[in-house]
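Loading example: each entry is read as three labelled lines plus one structure line.
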Amino acid sequence: MQSTQQESKTLLKVTNLRKYFSAGGDYFRPSRRKYIKAVDDISFTIPEGSTFGLVGESGCGKTTTSKVILGLYKPTSGTVIFEGSNVHGKLATTVKRGIHRDIQAVFQDPAGSLDPRMRIGSIVEEPLQIHSDGIEGERKMIALQMLEAVGLSREHYFRYPHELSGGQQQRVAIARALTLRPKLVILDEPVSALDMSVRAQVLNLLKDLQAQFNLTYLFVAHDLSVVRYMCDQVAVMYLGKIVEFSETKELFESPLHPYTKALLDAVPIPDPVNVKVRTPLSGNIPSSINLPSGCRFRTRCPYVMKICSEVEPELTNEGKSSVHPHYTACHLYPNKS
Amino acid sequence: MQKESSSIDELSAATLGQSERVVLSVQDLSVRFYLQSGVVSAVNHLSFDVEKGTNFGIVGESGSGKTVTALTIMGLVAIPPARVDSGRIMFNSEDLLRKSPNDMRNIRGKRIAMIYQDPMTSLNPVLRVGFQIAESIMVHDKIPRKQAYATAIKLMEAVGIPEPEKRAQAFPHQFSGGMRQRIMIAMALSTDPEILIADEPTTALDVITQAQILSLLKALQKQRNMTVILITHDLGIVAEFCDQVLVMYAGAGMERGTTREIFANPKHPYTKGLLESITRVDKDIKRLNSIPGEIPNLMRPPNGCRFHPRCQYVFQKCLNEEPREFPLPGGGFSKCWLLESDTR
Amino acid sequence: MLFTAFWILGYHMTEQEQLEVGRVPSKDSAEALVQERNYLQEAFRFFRDFSRNRGALFGLVFLLVLTISAIFANYIFPGNPNTSFLVPRPLPPTLQYPFGTDDVGRNLLELVVYGARTSLTIAFVAGSILALLGTVVGLVAGYYGGLIDGGLMRTADIFLTLPTLPLILLMAALLGPSLLNIMLIIGITNWPFMARLVRSNVLSMTQREFIQIEKVMGASTRRIVFRHLFPNQFSLILVYTSLSLPLVILTEAAIEFLGLAPISISWGFLLNVSTHYWIAGAWWMSFFPGVAIFMTSLAFYLVSEGLKEVLTPTLKRKRDSLVVQLAERK
């Protein structure tokens, strides 16, 4: 699947990624083993300098995907290529170290991502320590700089995580992630745990830092409105597969896949004048172990047809061109790319 | 400062519709937690009215006091360390705060019911759900077991659980989050309460499940002519679901009015700031306007207006005196000195 | 060395307290900000916070007094305790013999104090073995998981299911009665509890996001285990060890009482001897050693409670309601 825009360099390329977790069944009879197919054959590329959004409800595989990219899980099959190197392959130590420097992450729980025993200053410096960058004094200087860059003051250097508010803790996590000047930052629900009045602050901060440090973001979230604000491109996941992918504006204004439509439809809009009459989607998300045959979404799809239970739909480009693609996997759309 | 609140209540009752009866009236409520480390002023001179049959939304972030308010109405706040330092909660012309524990037990769950945020932990994991619903019926009415059970099954059907007879035998962990919340709603409705307080009922659910639950609540409300007090931090839910809104911040009620008024014409700087800082699914935003600063420490709240350190319109008076509640033309009020020159 | 102690314990002074102490990091001077912590001051503060708990303070004082008397027993009671006969039968407590005498006329007070040597040594050594073994196993099992975890935990289970006293008897019989063996035995029979605690704590920590981020940043396993996982366990380890010391002392007393290891003088031995004289009415012979055991166990318990209070303020925090948590944030 090609990315959009001009000749911007591809920073990350995920190809046919699968991650299955074993879920019991009969260990000794391979055909009878059961798996949780958390990620089931997805592919996408992230161009340098952009923000790529991965959206879906809980259980769709977006967090698992981000963990595989970060190297915390090994893929069951498929590849993750970062700047030409296979993240999970046999790499020279220097290349491996390079990847650790270049890909960083910020997670959802602000307090959980900080070691409660460490001072803020030490937390932010630690990446430098791990990679043996600079000497004591220099590291402290850099840490102070980073604290200021995320809007904290120097006096926070000596504090402990539990003395800070959620928003401040998240800023510390961001400062730490940027200390080594990474290229790619994976943001997994970075603002979901924060209060409303603080969310905008942190989102704006992320945008500013992206410009300042020339960062590329992979933004994983379930909140579609945040994704609309932050991302250039969006991929919608359902039960381990990407069901729709396009540029942000296009996806939100002309969603194609019935699931995307249902999702957008279900979000309550802070506008009391134009209240929609809704018919929310019925049913629940099927289990990832016993997936429906054919299209996974067919059990809840209002447009379901006979073919949906027989053949799993492929991603096809229904967009205007290959420069502005709009991929979707649904039998309603007959175009072949 | 709050002497005018009763006249404001009358005023707003008058303007919001004389024919509507006010079913719940919170007047000048203050709740403080007296702890070893200090005093937390969780709710501060809060006043609002809820009309019968409406959807009343309480919006606020963490620390706003919305949950403590709900728990105080239900009589569930732990009295030491908390203390209700002032105010009355009038429910059908009786003051709930003056009621004996026995009387409150009759009201709680029976006439005023509550559903909570986390459907995972609100149900007893070792009891079958049919039994739990039946139990909530039997606790309040002396009804034979079989009949209570039959009612439970009917309730499960009413809240949209398929195959209720079969599912009543199941345990909570065998249901999804949305289903568990439906069971909670069934339990809450089992005694046909006048008021249903829903404290962030959909926060832990996926957005599609959330839409299902909200539309269920709307339907049930219409059917039973119930009054719903919905507590949430999501302005979208408020816009679509609630008739009237109370915006709370740091323990005080900052603005109150009809939903349309509040969204179209917010008077309080906090409300304005919030509306400008939320992300939207339906439009492209170039840059969000964020409210600077952090939610204050409730043990050492700011002097004067609690919002003043973050307010873009702040002036001298805001630092010294806590504002009064200034009535607004459409009914409702805004607790902000900016309105002082306007009110006449 | 103080540095290590403090770093491990994770004890700290908050900024506020640093200001009070006068070590203000001035906002303009970067050098001031990078000053090292003054550990002596923190040591005083640690002690002060600890002393707030009267019980803990009492326990600490008691143990200190006991330890010092045990070490310097030679000076307090000059001469070999075995040679100070007076009358060859037990005498009740008098002014000259506050605890009375034992069956051969030795001063019981002297015996109890000498006995402290043995009992305390065993307590500390066995306690250390227990802590070391339990911690290492718990850390390894918790961090690596999988087969290693399974194997280690099954081994622990084996030790748990074996009945302690018969096991002790068996090992004493096989290995022969000596001080070292006793300490080993006690340590070995008790480590599974610690291992389980540590392991479950490690497991819950590994799932926490900060450990995952460490891995993302490229931290080595050694770093993660020693600088992140371990320090977060240390309070737990310390507290649990202090809690199990009473058990250790009692086990030792039981071994001695049963006559399995007639080592010179220890409290258990004294209790053993005293049984022969109950009929004679010599209550003091069992009473005072018994009180010694009880008081020492109590003292350990109080100290561990005090430590727990001082070292884990975050524990209290989690239990408070959201309102209180919000309020206590700065």
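The two ends of chain A are 10 Å apart (CA to CA).
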